[in-house]
Design a protein that fits this description.
Elements lengths: L2 E7 L8 E6 L2 E5 L26 E3 L5 H4 L2 H6 L6 E4 H32 L13 H7 L3 E4 L5 E4 L2 E7 L7 E7 L6 E5 L22 E5 L10 H18 L3 E4 L5 H14 L7 E5 L1 H11 L7 H4 L13 E3 L3 H6 L7 E5 L9 H8 L6 E4 L8 H6 L4 E4 L2 E4 L3 E4 L9 H9 L7 E5 L3 H15 L3 E2 L6 E3 L1
Length: about 475
């Protein structure tokens, strides 16, 4: 069997996850993610390397926007077949894609108005990448599958999804191609979760694969342990409360928001932080939290101790903010409050308005709880920028800037090695992806040294024969 693997995204960068397998005339797309790094966003507008109507199936690892965010464009340009994923991923992806489409339309309209006021014309951002209609056209194509249940995609080609422990419904995808002596197996790690973490089960491990595509987001560092996360979060809340400022948390709607809420629940129950108003200013995060609450079979034993409908993500003082007017009214509240809003990398959404109202206040804290890709507004802030441009205006950074790296839902360097080291049979090749270029290269070198495996760090649009 003639098998080719294309690296069409997240190759020496973090976002835009996308891989294509070609085998005996069958084309399978694994993930179809949106690019979020500023210098790579133009790739979102490029034609797909192969005509979408020639792709036989899409296999979606999970619902983060950098893994599913280009599906509406793929469908708008001709894809009509199934999108396979777990049931939880299907529910969450549909929420995220509709929200993304709304933001695409809203941002394009805003930029067009701004350019007209400034007397200039902008390029493609004045037109939405895709519309709400395009996102809705995706929804009937989602085809939920159970973990570890084989999905036959073609003659001698099948796939199975395994719990990745990263976010609710996240999966690693194992694809078997061919039969007998010609059979080859490929594992796509998706985003690998962590061991002994709250909310979700540990990631699945494998004993055999011919080829492995592994992420490397945190392949160059080791996370703080959970005890340090709680201690640091408590210190930030207490010191900001004492200073009389607000705590602004740019947070991903999926997993990170739920983790923050569960930690706050614990700290409040233990009396380690003062009671205060906490606003979840993200309709998308609110909807996704509801998905967590009705997919309790996917939660770990620690979370199952909560007797539903009581939720580990709820506590006194937590308020859900739905409308734009409600969001705007938060600016007039006196005294310390916490506002959790998207987007997690400050690339759009309500968080920008809360940054405008707090980033110039020394008494306030901007707390980052997730990865900040190169070129994003969030990355500029955590890298120590003295001033930043938000919604077309410059603002000096005077607020305290803090990070909780231990909250990451991604495995760190040692955890990635732990996952890979379970393989009892040496794979033919391990492909390192989904990491910034230096991180991916460093992690590749680390793997070679620790395992002796054949390791490759592919470039964008590299095609290899397996």
């Amino acid at each position: 069997m003639n098998i080719n693997l294309w690296f069409l995204g997240a190759a020496r960068n973090v976002t835009g996850s996308c891989y294509l397998i070609e085998a005996n005339g069958i084309r399978l797309l694994i993930d179809c993610g949106l690019y979020q790094e500023r210098e790579l966003r133009s790739r979102n507008w490029e034609p797909f390397p192969v005509p979408p109507n020639t792709i036989n199936a899409v296999l979606l690892t999970h619902a983060h926007i950098d893994h599913c965010g280009l599906l509406p464009k793929l469908v708008a340009e001709g894809y009509k077949n199934r999108i396979y994923c777990t049931a939880a991923t299907s529910e969450i992806a549909q929420i995220i894609l509709l929200d993304s489409a709304h933001l695409q339309e809203e941002d394009a309209a805003f930029k067009k108005r701004r350019h007209e006021r400034e007397g200039r014309r902008g390029p493609y951002p004045e037109t939405p990448l895709y519309t709400i209609k395009d996102a809705n056209d995706c929804l009937p194509l989602f085809s939920p599958v159970n973990y570890e249940e084989p999905v036959k995609l073609a003659t001698s080609i099948e796939a199975a999804f395994y719990d990745a422990g990263h976010v609710l419904g996240s999966a690693m995808v194992k694809i078997a191609l061919g039969s007998g002596a010609e059979k080859r197996t490929i594992i796509f790690s998706g985003d690998i979760g962590r061991w002994d973490r709250p909310i979700l089960s540990d990631p699945t491990v494998f004993s055999q694969a011919d080829y492995v595509v592994i992420e490397s987001t945190y392949g160059d560092r080791v996370h703080e342990d959970s005890a340090m996360v709680e201690e640091k979060l408590a210190e930030i809340v207490n010191s900001t409360h004492k200073a009389g400022g607000n705590i602004i948390i740019p947070s991903f709607a999926l997993q990170r928001t739920q983790e923050v809420l569960s930690y706050l629940n614990e700290l409040l129950a233990e009396g380690r932080i003062p009671h205060m108003m906490v606003f979840l200013d993200s309709p998308m995060a609110i909807k996704i939290t509801e998905v967590y609450c009705h997919h309790t079979e996917l939660l770990d034993q620690e979370m199952k101790r909560f007797k539903y409908p009581k939720s580990p993500f709820d506590f006194p003082g937590l308020k859900m903010v739905q409308t734009v007017d409600e969001s705007k009214s938060l600016n007039h509240i006196t005294g310390t409050v916490m506002i959790i809003a998207g987007a997690g990398m400050c690339t759009g959404g309500r968080i920008k308005h809360h940054l405008i109202n707090n980033i110039t206040r020394p008494e306030s804290t901007i707390l980052f709880v997730g990865y900040q890709a190169a070129g994003t507004l969030g990355r500029q802030i955590v890298d120590g920028a003295k001033g930043v441009r938000i919604l077309g205006k410059e603002y000096p950074v005077k607020a305290r800037i803090a990070q909780l790296t231990g909250l990451s839902a991604h495995a760190d360097r040692n955890e990635l090695l732990r996952w890979l080291s379970v393989l009892a049979v040496r794979p033919k090749c391990v492909f390192v992806t989904h990491g910034e270029e230096k991180t991916a290269e460093d992690f590749g070198a680390f793997l070679r040294q620790q395992t002796g495996f054949n390791v490759s760090v592919p470039q964008y649009k590299t095609r290899v024969s397996l």
